[in-house]
């Protein structure tokens, strides 16, 4: 029981991170209908920026953890959004309105390009940083097992919650959110009504990248190691999460992320850890067969 | 057909400078965290290292690169406008011209590929690389059935390639089957995997299908890594027998009572014989694939694939069984991938899950899309390009994958429809009617 509770906490932490990345996929898919394959690598770039920023702070003898975290978050969000913007501008915007597969190929190329740029400029080795946040709260002490929630885990879950609330507010209440939803429904009509579609799409990419940047900082804090290949698997899992929740739906992305995180940690704890990715994809297939539009997705109505 | 052509406002030098400065500024922001700063390991701890000189050089390069690119693009556009205004050719004429060019190109490529091993009979590297190109051509033609003709996005094609390769490896090392016996069986196994995967998921719409096939590719790879008793795990399977030439082995000395290839033809033994034989083998396999696919396109099932790609709802309304049609495309694509896998295993003599990662699927898909979906010649062109770019990059090997990614983005942005975007219609209306239509349009 205690062990299961611990897995629940670990799974939620993992799921929160997947969910943050998944939102980037789902928003981009919602607005321009493409799989942004480079999103996982944007997340990887943000983790590297976080490592650099933490090292800078250590060199400057900043010891206050909240100050350090705020600084790293701001720096990482700024640069990562710039990457999100640049990727959209160079690799996707010229292809808007062409076949559905063209931007996908360009995105795969972008993903290879980003991975290799980071490998070349930052080195292929794993980058470890000293633990930023240590310790935690002991929730339940049984003789056999101690359930513990680390401060970093708590931070991840709370930050994700706050971001989700802020994000929902932004999409439902602000002018930008309205424009974003308008573009999602009908880009031509939105343009006719005076919405700057290009800017809205750019901003969507930047927002997705910013959320990926938060996830990148969290991963750096939580695991303490980063390498240039983390983007691939995280990206696939997050995209799986977005599809599982129903692509195009924001709460769906978060729900899918949490589910994938929980499935992964419970499967690894009780069944065969080496097959945990098989479990993720297997369950995805099952869900899609039974509910082809995902858990919270609206069924697609095709007009002829 | 003379479309109204608007002259584009020409940029003034000041505008060009402003544009280039803006791009350089973006480059600066992007460059700071990755180029300007890096972390290095100093005594077990990370320390910051700055490379502002390099960053400055990169920004200057971006500035002038942008200036030059803008200028070149403008020049090219103006020239194209002039040409379009001057020529009276209609779109139909132009399409026919391209078509003729492509078919000439095809025959040239065929001639070159037959002559290549004769011209380079002592150059191991060239023959090896050409064999690799042909493997990708074959994979591309196989995937073209699924993506180009049937319009199903498959991101896990490498799974079938892996199934074919492992089937041959296991059949030959465990049961002593020869290459020719194992080839059809392995293809059939790969096809049944295609059906097994396809049956439950083909109801899904495009992008869901993509992610499920991607997941399937990963599942196959993870199983190959972890099921050590079957696949040898990460160590893979070694000493896979090589194909023989109608029972003649390509070895220095034959076993008791048999002859080697060199003995039989009275040649001096040379290691190149096998390489050249393998080259011709894959050439024949690839050409058979091409013939097979282009015949299929003329059959009802092939027409059904293309109809499905264009409009699924219309197909359903016409009473076509879309699931079965998709399934046949999936199975045939899988089978062709399986054949390529068998050849790959036989050529390498050693396979491991390392060879079947997602990047391979991405490369094959890129070959199909870069070539121009559904275009057989486009696949050849794209496969040659994508294999040769990293090969040329070997001199500065660190940058080869970087160049590869960059090339994918640039080609796509430059020609979104693929290198040979023109698609040959399988059915033509009465040519007379069409000519009249073309004149009317002009």
Q: What does this protein look like?
A:
The complex is a heterodimer of chains A (304) and B (442). Chain A has helices at residues 2-32, 39-59, 65-92, 101-122, 151-173, 175-185, 187-192, 197-223, 230-245, 250-270, 276-290, and strands at residues 127-128, 136-141, 146-150, 225-226. The radius of gyration of chain A is 19 Å and the shape is globular. Chain A has 304 residues and is mostly helical. In chain A, helix 6 (175-185) packs across helix 8 (197-223) and helix 9 packs parallel to helix 11 (276-290). In chain A, the strands form 2 sheets. Chain A has a two-stranded antiparallel sheet with strand order 1-4. A two-stranded antiparallel sheet of chain A has the order 2-3. In chain B, strands 1-2 form a two-stranded antiparallel sheet. Chain B is globular, with a radius of gyration of 26 Å. Mean pLDDT of chain B is 80; it is low at 1-5 and 436-442. Chains A and B meet through helix 2, helix 3, helix 4, strand 1 and helix 9 of A and helix 1, strand 1, strand 2, helix 7 and helix 14 of B.
The major β-sheet of chain B equals:
2 strands, antiparallel
How many helix segments of chain A? 11
**SSE order of chain B:** HEEHHHHHHHHHHHHHHHH
Counting helices, strands and paired strands, the structural category of chain A is mainly alpha
Low-confidence stretches of chain A: none
Query: Alpha-carbon distance between the termini of chain B?
Result: 4 Å
In quaternary terms, these chains amount to: heterodimer
Strand coverage percent of chain B: under 5%
Could you give the count of β-strands of chain A? 4
In spatial order, strands of the major sheet of chain A run 1-4
Taking pLDDT < 50 over at least 5 consecutive residues as the criterion, the unreliable ranges of chain B are 1-5, 436-442
Residues in helix, % of chain B: over 70%
Interface with most residues: A-B, 69 and 61 residues
């Amino acid at each position: 029981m205690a062990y299961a509770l611990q897995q629940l906490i670990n799974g939620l932490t993992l799921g929160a991170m997947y969910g943050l990345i998944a939102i980037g996929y789902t928003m981009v898919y919602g607005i321009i209908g493409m799989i942004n394959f480079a999103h996982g690598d944007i997340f990887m770039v943000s983790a590297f920026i976080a490592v650099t920023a933490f090292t800078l702070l250590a060199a400057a003898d900043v010891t206050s953890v909240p100050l350090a975290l705020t600084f790293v978050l701001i720096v990482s969000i700024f640069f990562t959004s710039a990457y999100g913007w640049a990727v959209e501008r160079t690799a996707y915007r010229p292809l808007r309105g062409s076949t559905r597969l063209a931007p996908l190929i360009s995105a795969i190329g972008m993903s290879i390009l980003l991975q290799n740029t980071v490998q070349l400029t930052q080195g292929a080795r794993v980058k470890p940083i000293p633990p930023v946040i240590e310790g935690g709260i002991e929730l339940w002490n049984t003789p056999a097992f101690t359930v513990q929630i680390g401060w970093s885990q708590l931070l991840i879950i709370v930050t994700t919650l706050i971001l989700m609330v802020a994000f929902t507010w932004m999409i439902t209440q602000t002018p930008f959110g309205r424009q974003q939803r308008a573009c999602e429904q009908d880009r031509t009509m939105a343009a006719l009504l005076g919405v700057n579609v290009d800017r809205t799409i750019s901003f969507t990419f930047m927002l997705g990248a910013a959320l990926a940047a938060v996830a990148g900082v969290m991963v750096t804090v939580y695991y303490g190691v980063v390498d240039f290949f983390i983007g691939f698997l995280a990206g696939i899992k997050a995209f799986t999460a977005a599809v599982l929740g129903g692509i195009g739906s924001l709460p769906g992305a978060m729900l899918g992320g949490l589910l994938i995180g929980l499935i992964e940690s419970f499967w690894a704890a009780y069944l065969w850890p080496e097959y945990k990715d098989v479990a993720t994809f297997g369950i995805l297939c099952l869900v899609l067969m039974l509910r082809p539009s995902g858990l919270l997705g609206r069924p697609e109505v095709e007009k002829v | 057909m003379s479309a109204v052509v608007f002259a584009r406002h020409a940029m003034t030098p000041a505008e060009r400078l402003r544009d280039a400065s803006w791009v350089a500024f973006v480059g600066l922001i992007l460059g700071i965290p990755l180029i300007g700063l890096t972390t290095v390991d100093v005594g077990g701890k990370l320390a910051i290292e700055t490379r502002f000189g390099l960053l400055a050089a990169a920004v200057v390069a971006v500035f002038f690169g942008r200036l030059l690119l803008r200028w070149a693009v403008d020049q090219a556009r103006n020239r194209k406008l002039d040409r379009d205004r001057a020529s009276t050719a209609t779109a139909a004429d132009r399409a026919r011209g391209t078509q003729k060019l492509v078919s000439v190109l095809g025959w040239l490529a065929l001639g070159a590929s037959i002559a290549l091993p004769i011209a380079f009979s002592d150059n191991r590297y060239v023959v090896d690389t050409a064999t690799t190109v042909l493997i990708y051509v074959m994979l591309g033609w196989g995937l073209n059935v699924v993506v180009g003709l049937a319009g199903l996005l498959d991101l896990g094609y490498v799974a079938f390639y892996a199934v074919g390769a492992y089937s041959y490896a296991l059949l030959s090392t465990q049961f002593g089957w020869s290459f020719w016996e194992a080839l059809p069986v392995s293809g059939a196994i790969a096809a049944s995997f295609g059906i097994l995967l396809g049956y439950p998921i083909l109801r899904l719409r495009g992008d869901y299908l993509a992610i499920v096939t991607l997941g399937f590719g990963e599942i196959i790879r993870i199983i190959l890594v972890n099921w050590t008793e079957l696949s040898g795990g990460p160590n893979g399977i070694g000493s896979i027998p090589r194909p023989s030439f109608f029972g003649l082995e390509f070895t220095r000395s034959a076993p008791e009572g048999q002859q080697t290839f060199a003995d039989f033809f009275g040649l001096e033994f040379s290691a190149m014989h096998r390489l050249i034989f393998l080259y011709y083998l894959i050439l024949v396999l690839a050409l058979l694939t091409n013939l097979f696919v282009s015949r299929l396109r003329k059959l009802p099932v092939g027409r059904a694939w293309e109809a499905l790609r264009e409009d699924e709802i219309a197909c359903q309304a016409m009473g076509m069984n879309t699931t079965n049609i998709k399934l046949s495309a999936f199975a045939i694509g899988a089978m062709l991938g399986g054949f390529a896998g068998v050849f790959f295993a036989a050529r390498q003599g050693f396979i491991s899950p390392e060879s079947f990662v997602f990047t391979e699927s991405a490369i094959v898909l890129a070959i199909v899309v870069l070539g121009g979906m559904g275009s057989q010649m486009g696949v050849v062109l794209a496969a040659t390009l994508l294999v040769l770019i990293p090969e040329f990059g070997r001199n500065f090997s660190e940058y080869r994958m970087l160049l590869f990614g960059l090339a994918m983005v640039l080609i796509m942005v430059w020609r979104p429809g693929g290198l040979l975007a023109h698609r040959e219609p399988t059915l033509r209306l009465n040519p007379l009617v069409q000519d009249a239509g073309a004149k009317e349009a002009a």
